[in-house]
Amino acid sequence: ERVGPAPTAAEIEAAILRGQELALAAGRTEIHDMGIGPETIAAYTRLAADGRLHLRVYAMGAEADADRLLAHPPTPAAPGAMFTLRGIKLYADGALGSRGAALLQPYSDDPTNRGLVITPAATIEKIARAAVASGWQVAVHAIGDRANRDVLDAYAHAGVGPAQRFRIEHAQ
User: Fold this and answer.
1) For residues 75 and 41, what is the distance between their CA atoms, to the nearest angstrom?
2) Phi first, then psi: what are they for 15, rounded to 5°?
3) Residues 99, 164: Cα–Cα separation, whole Å
4) Per-residue pLDDT at 111
């Protein structure tokens, strides 16, 4: 992705429509698309407006776009809407297999490594606080025990309650 050309709007739409075909053929009626950028958001919006989106999509924008997203209210959860953008996807840590999950204790086979912090707890708290105030939801990838603790603490400090429906993704 870093070295190739960015896909065009037509290529993004074609990829979405092909994915939709596969999902519908498998009996799926709704998907979540997590951490998408502005070009993909625009493509979904166009496809829904044109009546070409036949699969319900609940989307979360990318962390890199958090400030821009939080400056506007989320898409209302309208009955029958094919595209809903209501959340922001964050990453607290990496993966367990690559020893990137943020742990409280070092990895047993790598005593100098406690994993990676991708998004600091203070940033998660700041985004969560703004999301609570503006009606957005937040989902944070947090695999390691340290990352999960940091996310739960950030949510608590930001005043997140059950009504906000914030979540942790991939907790292990």
Assistant:
1) 11
2) -65, -40
3) 31
4) 95
